[in-house]
Amino acid sequence: MAKMAYYPGNVARAGAFEVEDTIQPMCRALNIQLIELPRASSDGGNVIKQATPKLQDALVARNLALAEEKGLDIITACASSHAIMCNTIDDMKRDPVYANTINNLIARTSSLEFKGESRSHHLLHYLVEHVGLDAVRDAVKNPLNMKVAAYYGPDMQRQGACGRDDPFMPNYMEQLIIALGGTPVDYDSKCASVGSTSMLTLEDSSLAMTAAVLSDAIQSGADLVVSACTVSHINLDSYQSKAGRQSGKNTTVPVCHMTELIAFALGYFPDRFAQLKTRVRLIGS
Amino acid sequence: MTVVAKVWIDEDCITCDACQDICPEVFEVNDESSQILAAVRVDGKFDRNVGGSPLSGTLGADLGDIILEAAEACPVEVIKFELVTEGGEETVVAAEAPVEATTESIAAVPAAGASEALTAVLGGDRALNILFGSQTGNAAGLAEKTAKMAANYGLEAKVVDMEGLDPVKLASMKRVMIITSTWGEGEMPDNADAMWTSINANGPALANTHFTICAIGDSSYDEFCKAGHDWNGKLASLGGHEAFPIKECDVDFEPPWQEWVVEALPLLACVDDSGTLQVELLEEMKAYGSDDDDDIVEGDFAPGILAQEDINITLEIFRYCPEASESGWDTLACAVPGHATVQDLLITMQREVDGSLAFRRGSSAGTPTTGVRVNGRVVLADLAMVGDLAQEGGRVRIEPLPGHPVVRDLIVDTGRFESHRSRAEPWMRTDPREGQTLPSGAAMGTVDSAVATALHQAGDVLSFQLIQAMSDTLAHDTHYEGPGVHFQQWLRILDPRTGESQRRSMLNSLQEKDGVWSETDHASLIRQGEDGRLAARSLNEARSALLNQSRYSGKSGRLVKWYGRSVKWTGNVNETTLYRQVLGPLGLVSNVFSGVSARMALAFTRNGSPPLRGLQGLLFPPSGVGRIPKMFNSKVDEYHEVVSLFNEIDQRF
């Protein structure tokens, strides 16, 4: 069983419990052992960075150092968190002087050092590149049998943060959907931003962007949208109705986290899966 | 190497910024016109330089090639310049009409063993007039090249702009080459229109004139190369002698022009002093023209492009017809060399499949105005190679640059970007630094080389238009000025030569409603590669500076402040606190009525997770003012380490 340090991100243990509920059993089923990092803190969510980039990088480097201390790589189900970790690793690799500054800070405050050995993996890339889609397919108990639109968001869709997937025309999640017994639906906006970091400050723009993504997925025939980013899920789901009313577009479509979809297909939470299927039938495609 | 003596800007500049993007050392565009920077001029003034002040020091040599590149890129051809010949004389190029540019005067020295007849021809009058009718500069460029080649045959070539040329002068010209494009539906280019009208009204007799025509056109139009044929017929009807048949050139005009010029030049060179074409000397003249005693280093000095294998692709090109308000996709399966640029693809498509395809062309060196989106990537069409964008059997999907209205096919209207830029005024207004002034007495800012290097690195991007197009927000917020504009403003703010009042004004502008806080997500920039990463970094720096200036006021300031405090005090983010502090009580009520809170709390959309857990996020102790409440989400282990980190780096939280 592969051991991975688990980083839940900023919302999986706050506003998105369903990620926390589902990632644990699905990882066990796929022979991934999640190791807790009890000292790990928030990564700053690209918000603290706006005041002090060095502070955000220090928070992230501290989390990475905690995993490195255990000799583990980090796995997360949040695209935004994964991208933030990749950005910090990149910045420290580009500038050894800066890396030294950050390491001095976390050494003084936490007696830690990030040597650059631990890496961050998004759950999606880890499943496709390390676990293998055949293993996923073999573990499926309840095939999805739905048309599913994958939402990647822009955060991790860049060179160096999306594994060997194409940053601009990704298809890892589509491959995963097929392995889970679903039918992927292709649409143009799957990497477009929904403005998740700015929903509280730029609601009009964020709602318009959210509506554009959802209506695009619906027009392409999706029964369901699955999100690889736990933060963006808030926009796609909780703000869905508001986005629809503001834009005048049809935005009504069930949205779930990637961990939920995998867990459901692997046979966990059959009652929740049934509820999801009912909603898909009621809403229609 | 090209040495420019002076450069100036004619009237009617459209402030498109192309010159500034290509050569910011010389050109700066304000809201009225491109200007020649004071620092590069002998007179130290900052204006269009219509007085023709020379370039100072060795700048004319150092920047000559790039000034010419900027002039060629100017869509309205208002950049004028003078070149310095080897003898130190100044030669006017593209100046006030009629323009007569003389190539270096090379004495025609017959080769050893040349016949007496050839010696006699070469010893006489060797004037050759190359007239150009040009709308976009292509014909003018070919005329320049032709003039250079003419020297090989002992000809003294003058490049003559047809604008304002009296056709009566043609009668005194023994050798005439006309290179002209055709504009619109068979019309003369603008600069040839008056001369065409004049020669039709009062054409001179051309009994002593030998001529040949090179006609440029687009075979997708019915009246292909009509202007060239009109001139050919007119000169012949006036008694002129057609020395070499007219050559038609399609959109890929260089190869046929090459065929024409290697045959036509030696033929015209055989016209003797009396105006007689001595055809029998043609072979000897060709040999003379190709004879060169200089030792020339041979080799391939072309830029290093690694030839790549052909790849099979499915090409998809966005099409839009404004007349019919219809859009769609052209799809074509084809094999192309991996090293072909996107522009090469488009040119081939236009030439061989559909001549009506519209797109902006560049100089094949990264022209800032050639931006398109290919497979989701924002790229310059004349720089991006197909092999870098698609794999064997893949798809190449070419769309207009996002964030701008589409005019036709791949051509977008950048007017919104330009008007935002114009309002943002990101050009320099210097303040005196330590009493430094230019010779004219005007104020001069100073910058040391380390700062200059850092500034250059911070803004070293291919095109600000591309940066603008990287934003996912721009299409959804019509008032947002955009990252391309704000990036330029921030670079100007960083420049120590910028005056204090301008710096304050631009900082205030960035802080305003449609300013730097209007970008919802820098991730859409960062993912576009190094240029986007540079821009995002600068825009984040701008936000940091503004937070200090505004003391964390406004929604954006409150979000950063309370996010930071929340993390500092527990190691985790507390959403309740953020909602309460950023939106305020009214915002929370709004979310209740809009259904957002219900969707969050009741877990209806959470696929059956217990509703109580969703309610916890909203109902547990509401945030107080000034003191963070006890949260139901617990502190991380050893959270004092996080507190120490905050205290070490930023004690404002």
Structure in words:
The complex is a heterodimer of chains A (285) and B (653). Chain A is an alpha/beta fold and 285 residues long. Chain A has 13 helices and 8 strands. In chain A, 51% of the residues lie in helices and 11% in strands. In chain A, the strands form 2 sheets. Chain A has a 4-stranded parallel β-sheet. The radius of gyration of chain A is 19 Å and the shape is globular. Chain B has 5 domains: 4-93, Alpha-Beta Plaits (2-Layer Sandwich); 116-289, 3-Layer(aba) Sandwich (Rossmann fold); 310-412, Roll (Ubiquitin-like (UB roll)), CATH 3.10.20; 417-550, Fumarate Reductase Iron-sulfur Protein, Chain B, domain 2, CATH 1.10.1060; 554-652, no CATH class. Chain B has 23 helices and 18 strands. In chain B, the strands form 5 sheets. Chain B has a 6-stranded mixed β-sheet with strand order 6-8-7-9-10-11, with helices on both faces. Chain B is elongated and about 105 Å long. Chains A and B meet through helix 1, helix 2, helix 3, helix 4 and helix 5 of A and helix 17, helix 18, helix 19, helix 20 and helix 21 of B.
Draw up the topology in text.
The complex is a heterodimer of chains A (285) and B (653).
Chain A: E1 2-6, H1 17-29, E2 32-35, H2 48-51, H3 53-69, E3 74-76, H4 79-94, H5 96-110, E4 120-122, H6 123-131, H7 133-139, E5 147-151, H8 172-179, E6 183-185, H9 203-219, E7 224-227, H10 230-237, H11 240-247, E8 255-257, H12 258-265, H13 270-283
Parallel strand pairs in A: 1-2, 1-3, 3-4, 5-6, 5-7, 7-8
Chain B: E1 4-9, H1 18-22, E2 27-29, E3 34-36, H2 59-62, H3 64-73, E4 79-84, E5 90-93, E6 100-102, H4 116-123, E7 127-133, H5 138-150, E8 156-161, E9 175-181, H6 190-201, E10 210-216, H7 226-237, E11 241-249, H8 254-269, H9 282-290, E12 310-321, E13 326-337, H10 342-352, E14 371-374, E15 377-380, H11 386-389, E16 395-400, E17 406-408, E18 411-412, H12 415-424, H13 449-458, H14 464-470, H15 483-494, H16 500-511, H17 523-526, H18 530-550, H19 554-570, H20 575-594, H21 596-601, H22 611-619, H23 639-649
Parallel strand pairs in B: 7-8, 7-9, 9-10, 10-11, 12-16
Antiparallel strand pairs in B: 1-4, 2-3, 4-5, 6-8, 12-13, 14-15, 14-16, 17-18
Helix pairs in contact in B: 5-8, 12-15, 14-15, 15-16, 15-18, 19-20, 19-23
